[in-house]
Amino acid sequence: MQDITTMLANLHRPRLLLRAARIGARDYRRSVHLRPVLKCAALPVTGAALIALLEIEQEMEDARARGDAVYSPLRHVSILIALMGEARLLRASQAEPAVS
């Protein structure tokens, strides 16, 4: 099984989707953006949120690739924004020195 950082590194999506998500990720606020994407009352920890977002994003990507009528580019970008924001939070938490 791959770890989260490897799964994120292996994620390849169309440039336009990624460009829009990068712009939106600049203003990412977990408390505002994550709840509607995950449709949850309580926010999960970053690792669990990333796993859930990766699963949802894969479903969106599959729908996009199929040309499915229910595919929403807006929702896909929202998911990618949350994914990028959560990945940034994960990297920041891993870079913090351990407190003894």
Short summary:
The chain is an all-alpha fold and 100 residues long. The chain contains five helices and no strands.
CA(first)-CA(last) distance: 31 Å
Q: Could you tell me the radius of gyration in angstroms?
A: 14 Å
Total strands: the figure is 0
Count of folded domains: 1
Structural class: mainly alpha
Shape: globular
Biggest beta sheet attributes: none
Parts with pLDDT < 50 across at least 5 consecutive residues: none
Write a concise keyword list for the protein shown above:
100 residues; mainly alpha; 5 helices; 70% helix
What do these coordinates show?
The chain has 100 residues and is mainly alpha-helical. It has one domain. 70% of the residues lie in helices and 0% in strands. The chain has helices at residues 4-9, 15-25, 30-38, 46-66, 73-95. α2 crosses α5, α3 packs across α5 (73-95) and α4 packs antiparallel against α5. The termini are far apart. The model has no long low-confidence stretch (mean pLDDT 88).
Topology at a glance:
Layout: H1 4-9, H2 15-25, H3 30-38, H4 46-66, H5 73-95
